Backbone:
């Protein structure tokens, strides 16, 4: 039971970090860009750092969002085959999750390599003087998060099949995510 | 075609057919190409993945998604529907017209199809059926009208097209106007003709001046949002970027302070879910850039161009072939993935056939959007089928008249480029 409870706490903690990171950085980008528009038209003045900030926000939001998207099963897929043969869904999801694990691994390994290169050169962004190593570090970190989230999703899928845990539990685990249900339709 | 091209194509299609997330399909195909055929390090690929996100222009995606999501969550959509409803529902087939106009208005805020289907279909379908409209008409209407979400600006897929083609985004947005209006107009005429002689359908009395004023007062804040986005972009006051930012701030302001339909928790959730949606799209952008890098190294777009140019002579045949191809691809693939994957391959073809890239961007968007609800595989069919508890065959049959209208509009704008291009040209894009 103890590892179970520990994992649950870890899940909660990571969810917390993911969600607050996304909220804070997106809001920061929104506010700085809005301020920029107001200043430009009202006072003919531009915030030089806002563009740089926004670029970092996009990188962060995309990689952190990737980890959340794995958990919420919100990745965009072509689901024609699954629509025709619903029976294949379980197997295909399992196999795509394996590929996702591989992707997480690639992100961690090569992301770490690229980041440590930045660490050696000690470069900084031009205006805000943020060390590039912080910007690049998001890759290995979120790579690990993608990996963990994929494992989590796989366990959720396997549990009822193998008869682990109490039946019906997995359902509520899916629904604690934000925009809801598993397998959202692909968006455009 | 060389052996390596064939293998890459098989890997890509194989991944796509087996439910692998689209960005992974692209990334792994690129990886296979880099490692086995180009003998280049994977580090380069991962670096490309990262660098392709380091672009300021991508922010427009995030904020248009955010803006659309705020609207869907809050009261704005409801206000827009009420507005459309009270303006046209005294006409025969009026509620149906309200449905398509509502989709158009919502499309003017959001850039996505599925968001529109879910936001509007959920309550328009029961409302139409309750008022005596045929089920087949209702489902057909609400399956196809959400296409207006991508055709009427702002459109997320046009943002991506402008990124790969370097056409002006504001200009592309403006081209979407005329086809959007044409579709709305034709569907309204169709509804009018179909329900002209029916007496069993409840109609509201025509509103008088006092009522009209009240209706506009009620919908004022929602309409202002459209004024900000359109007016801002068309008059050149805002760039598309700024319009998205200002519209998001305005939408938060209206929902939080005026309609009071959102609290802090809602704001947080909407922001997060928008960030996640945009992340899933931007991952595809990043992976498509990696894949594009491979295509360029292998000089594939130019080789495809050579083959096509040697086998097709006239621009008309070329456009027709494009129409059919995109319609079929649109059935299986979502608009954004298709734009990002096929755009770079098709763009070198436009010069030799004398097709304007801006015009082609519009054709591609409208075409792929129609593919989205084309039987037998279009995704929208499955969504409305689920909303209306009907099987896919029933929905497929019900979309036919609407599909005919949209395909008619598509052909019209494909072969009369002057009609769609005059507006952006006139405004100087």
Residues:
């Amino acid at each position: 039971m103890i590892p179970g409870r520990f994992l649950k706490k870890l899940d909660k903690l990571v969810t917390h970090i993911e969600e607050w990171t996304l909220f804070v950085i997106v809001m920061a980008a929104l506010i700085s860009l809005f301020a920029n528009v107001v200043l430009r038209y009202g006072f003919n003045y531009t915030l030089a750092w806002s563009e740089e900030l926004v670029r970092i926000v996009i990188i962060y939001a995309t990689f952190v969002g990737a980890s959340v998207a794995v958990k919420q099963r919100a990745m965009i897929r072509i689901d024609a085959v699954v629509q025709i043969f619903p029976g294949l869904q379980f197997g295909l999801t399992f196999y795509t999750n394996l590929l996702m694990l591989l992707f997480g691994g690639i992100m961690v390994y090569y992301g770490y390599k690229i980041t440590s290169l930045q660490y050696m050169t000690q470069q900084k962004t031009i205006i805000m003087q943020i060390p590039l190593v912080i910007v690049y570090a998001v890759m290995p970190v979120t790579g690990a998060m993608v990996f963990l989230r994929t494992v989590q999703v796989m366990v959720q899928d396997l549990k009822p099949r193998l008869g682990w845990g109490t039946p019906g539990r997995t359902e509520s685990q899916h629904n604690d995510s934000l925009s809801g249900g598993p397998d959202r339709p692909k968006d455009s | 075609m060389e052996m390596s091209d064939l293998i890459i194509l098989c890997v890509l299609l194989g991944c796509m057919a087996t439910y692998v997330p689209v960005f992974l399909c692209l990334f792994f195909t690129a990886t296979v190409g880099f490692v086995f055929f180009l003998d280049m390090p994977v580090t380069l690929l991962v670096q490309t993945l990262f660098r392709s996100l380091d672009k300021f222009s991508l922010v427009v995606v995030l904020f248009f998604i955010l803006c659309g999501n705020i609207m869907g969550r809050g009261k704005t959509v409801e206000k827009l529907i009420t507005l459309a409803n009270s303006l046209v529902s005294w006409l025969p087939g009026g509620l149906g017209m309200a449905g398509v106009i509502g989709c158009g208005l919502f499309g003017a805020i959001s850039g996505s199809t599925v968001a529109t289907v879910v936001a509007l279909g959920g309550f328009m379908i029961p409302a139409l059926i309750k008022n005596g409209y045929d089920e087949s008409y209702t489902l057909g209407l609400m399956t196809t009208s959400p296409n207006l979400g991508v055709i009427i600006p702002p459109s997320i897929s046009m943002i991506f097209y402008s990124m790969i083609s370097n056409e002006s985004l504001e200009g592309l947005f403006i081209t979407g106007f005329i086809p959007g209006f044409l579709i709305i107009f034709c569907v309204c005429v169709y509804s009018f003709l179909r329900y002209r002689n029916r007496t069993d359908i409840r109609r509201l009395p025509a509103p008088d001046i006092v009522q009209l004023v009240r209706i506009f007062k009620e919908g004022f804040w929602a309409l202002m949002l459209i004024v900000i986005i359109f007016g801002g972009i068309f008059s050149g006051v805002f760039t598309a970027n700024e319009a998205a930012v200002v519209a998001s701030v305005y939408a938060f302001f209206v929902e939080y302070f005026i309609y009071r339909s959102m609290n802090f928790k809602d704001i947080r959730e909407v922001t997060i879910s928008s960030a996640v949606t945009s992340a899933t799209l931007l991952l595809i952008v990043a992976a498509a850039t990696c894949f594009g890098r491979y295509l360029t190294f292998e000089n594939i777009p130019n080789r495809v161009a050579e083959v096509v140019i040697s086998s097709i002579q006239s621009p008309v045949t070329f456009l027709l072939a494009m129409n059919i191809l995109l319609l079929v691809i649109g059935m299986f693939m979502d608009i954004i993935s298709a734009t990002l994957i096929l755009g770079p391959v098709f763009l070198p073809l436009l010069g030799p056939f004398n097709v304007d890239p801006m015009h082609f961007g519009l054709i591609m968007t409208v075409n792929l959007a129609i593919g989205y609800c084309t039987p037998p595989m279009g995704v929208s069919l499955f969504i409305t089928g689920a909303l209306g508890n009907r099987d896919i065959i029933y929905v497929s049959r019900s979309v036919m008249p609407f599909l005919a209208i949209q395909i008619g509009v598509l052909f019209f704008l494909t072969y009369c480029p002057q009609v769609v291009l005059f507006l952006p040209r006139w405004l100087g894009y």
